[in-house]
Amino acid sequence: MISDRVKRNISAICIVIGTVCVISRVWEVIISPKSGSAWFELSGSILILFICIDSYINYRRRIKKESH
After folding, report:
1. Which of 15, 25, 55, 63 has its CA 20 to 30 A from that of 8?
2. DSSP track, the chain
3. CA-CA distance, 30 to 28, in Å (whole number)?
């Protein structure tokens, strides 16, 4: 079974990758603000980033709770 520390670290890596994706999608929206697909891709990237952040926070809390 994978430990919570490994899952937290994987979530942290996903946050970094997700942040880069959101920046890329924001750039696409800046270039063509009337493009519906650019807005759709941006909202999807933000949603995935928030899911990664939420899982990171949950694993961080578990690790803190286990260490005390």
Report:
1. 25
2. ---HHHHHHHHHHHHHHHHHHHHHHHHHHHH-TT-HHHHHHHHHHHHHHHHHHHHHHHHHHHHHHHH-
3. 5
